[in-house]
Specification:
This protein is mainly α. It contains five helices and no strands. α2 packs antiparallel against α3 and α3 packs antiparallel against α4. The protein is elongated and about 60 Å long.
């Protein structure tokens, strides 16, 4: 499984945001009012992932007073990180599409003005979840992964002192 990239997340955000905006244009009058803290659960999940990532990284790096990470725990953390990043991007697209509809109509529609704070909280919380997913994914990298990435960026393939004389 390859790491999630910001480009992938931006693509998900834009596609879902456009679809949500178009659907909101069609169906907003029939929607119930949004609860103010509808998206706050995403922020709670983001904070939990940040904390877990911090402690998991210390264990993976073998810091003193930490026990090694079992491979299955690391694999689950990577799967959760990828899912959280993608879900956060998709949910941010939903909140962003809704917000794109609401902002220009706040002065004309009382409902739009009332729903705008909910959409802002939801958007910020969803972006935090996507960022936390990327952070958790980063925390699951081993020092060997980091070295391989540096070698790839430098144009090397990870093999030490491999020269070909022709």
């Amino acid at each position: 499984m390859k790491p999630t990239t910001v480009r992938e997340l931006v693509s998900v955000f834009v596609v879902v945001g456009v679809i949500c905006y178009l659907l909101t244009r069609l169906y907003y009058p029939s929607l119930p009012p949004l609860p103010l803290f509808a998206g706050i659960t995403l922020l709670v999940l983001a904070v939990l992932e940040l904390v877990w990532g911090y402690f998991l990284k210390a264990r993976i790096e073998g810091k003193p007073d930490t026990k090694p990470v079992e491979p299955l725990v690391a694999a689950r953390a990577v799967a959760l990180a990828k899912a959280s990043a993608l879900a956060g991007a998709a949910l941010a697209g939903i909140w962003g599409g809704l917000l794109a509809y609401l902002l220009p109509r706040r002065g004309q529609l009382a409902a739009a003005a009332d729903d705008t704070p909910s959409a802002v909280i939801g958007l910020v919380s969803a972006l935090a979840l996507a960022a936390a997913g990327l952070y958790l994914q980063h925390c699951c990298r081993t020092p060997l992964d980091d070295r391989d990435d540096r070698d790839d960026r430098d144009g090397r393939d990870g093999r030490a002192n491999d020269t070909h004389a022709h």
